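Deliverable D4.2, example record:
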Amino acid sequence: MNFRISGALGALRHDLPASLVVFLIALPLCLGVAVASGAPAELGLLTGIVGGLVVGFLPGSSLQVSGPAAGLTVLVYEAVRAYGLGTLGVIVLAAGLVQVLLGLIRVGGWFRAISSSVVLGMLAGIGVVLVIGQTYAAFDQTTPASAVAGLTGLPDLLSGAIHTPSVLIAACLGLGTIAVITAWPHTPKWVRAVPGSLVAIALATTVTAVLDLPVDRIQVQGILDTLHPVAVGDLASLTRAGVLGTAVAFALIASAESLFSAAAVDQMHRGPRTRYNQELVAQGVGNTICGLLGAIPMTAVIVRSAANVRAGATTKASRTLHGLWLLLFAAFLPAVLGIIPMAALAGVLIHAGVKLLPFRRLVTLWRVDRGEVAVFVGTSTAIVATNLLEGVIAGLLMALVKSAWNMSHVEVRRQDDAGATRIALAGNATFLRLPRLLDVLESVPHNRAVTLDLSGLRHLDEACRTALLTWATHHRSGGSEVHLQDPAAAVLGTSDRTSG
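Output generated by the structure prediction step:
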């Protein structure tokens, strides 16, 4: 018993200071993500509290931290704009139940099979959309309805700021916030004990209060006033295809981000490894509760999780305690929110959006496989041009096409003798390689006998089989002979075989 008590106290000695570090990092991000999502700032705190006190206590991962994430900001904003804040709780509730179901049927490991280029493209697309939207927020202006409209409107935004003092002041606060956060890692180590984002928010808030600057501030209502608990009648909205589709998108994207984060966090410490299916259930329980309360969704967040590990956390007590500190802040210091300038929160989110752009990973991808770079660029561009869900679907389709292209390698060897031609095929002949195959076949003169050696084929799809038979029939109609080697297995019979 004494051993257990001393062990718990020893762990708490590391976990308590780690929880304070995570709290200080999570506080501005909870507020900023909520505001950028089109929801009251208090709902971001509520999601962080649930992520700490509920998900932090559940099994799955020991050290990763859950809460509002920049990766879901774009999708949540689109959902709030399309269906209203009142329906958001229903969407998050349904997404949580889907996550629980996915965990119970043990599909957590499958999320690790998603192409990394699609994931990186998704994060990059989210980052670009987040930066564009929050640039307008940093200028105290309304964010355009789409990222494309926001991008094309940036010149007018910048030119208008020059002639409007209040807009220029807000922009300076936003830029100052970004500058402080960017420079903070280069300060002395003892100074960096306090997170740069919190320092930047505190400085911007102080300057705004002392000088009484004419900028927008967070609208404070109190957590109880912002709650939109889901009623039984609200569940009828799930019969709408758009609402249900958005819930499934929430579930899949939040699950992927959480489990990718878990894989990254596992590489940072030597403690217990993440149990992916249990972690998926834990995330689902958290989102179910957030949905019932009408809060914004959560995921496991790599920034807070990495900070938790680097701060020396050893057990899940650190992430649970960080939820307690958020709860105490929301209960006793809600008035502090009302003096925080919106432009400063936008600066925090712009910095977070830029951090989502994987510049170093992109260089590595370019050196290893430029096809993966194409999938990355295609995914991120599709997200910016359309929306998050359609962009991710486009990215997955591009990844599948690339994989099919790589797997459909076929070798075509042609040998011409006196009056006869021999063409040998080896590998996987699919419709993706059909143009090349037909080019070789159609280049054979009509007056030459042809031998098609198909014994080297491991796979021949229906399109290539039909094309070969059609060409052979056409070539024979001109009076030339066509001999098929191994036709029973490769052409006239089954289309799959294992060559000996």
